[in-house]
Amino acid sequence: MGTVKNQSGAGIPGAQMLFEGPQTHTRNRNSNGGYQTLDLIPGTYKITVTAFGYKPKIEEGVELPATTVVKNYILEPQ
Questions:
Q1: How far is Cα 73 from Cα 51, in angstroms, rounded to an integer?
Q2: Distance from CA of residue 24 to its chain's centroid?
Q3: Alpha-carbon distances, residue 55 vs 3, 6, 21, 23, 67 (angstroms)
Q4: What is the DSSP string of 3-43?
Q5: Cβ atoms of residues 26 and 37 within 8 Å
Q6: What CATH architecture does domain 2-74 belong to?
Q7: What pTM, to 2 d.p., does this model score?
Q8: How high is the pLDDT of residue 20?
Q9: pLDDT tens-digit map of 20-75
Q10: What residue segments make up the domains of the chain, in order of their start?
Q11: How does 30-57 read in b/e, with b if 16+ C-beta sit within 10 Å?
């Protein structure tokens, strides 16, 4: 769970997150930029965050345990 925001701190509606690892999963953000992913298998993931008009944010080697993890992202304009 967490948020996807711009540099001003506003949530980015419609941002997408791709989780690639033991399981591949895509999530769309809500209108406030918030997301929640409860059903991922624990393991090491590559997380790609994209939104129209923003540079993609890629984070590799992210360890997601069976417990709740908060990951917040800030995207920069293209």
A1: 12
A2: 13
A3: 16, 11, 22, 24, 29
A4: EEE-TTS-B-TT-EEEEESSSEEEEE--TTSEE----PPSE
A5: no
A6: Sandwich (2.60)
A7: 0.85
A8: 94
A9: 999 888 877 667 777 777 778 899 999 999 999 999 999 999 998 887 788 899 99
A10: 2-74
A11: eeebebebeebeeeebebbbbbeebeeb
CB 64 within 8 A of CB 33: no
Residues 6 or more apart from 8 whose CB is under 8 A from it? none
Q: Return the structure tokens found at 27.
A: 């999530």
Tokens 């769970």 appear where? Answer: 1
The amino acid occupying position 25 is: H
| pLDDT tops 90 at residue 2 | no
Q: Give me the amino acid identity at 69.
A: V
Amino acid, single-letter form, for residue 2: G
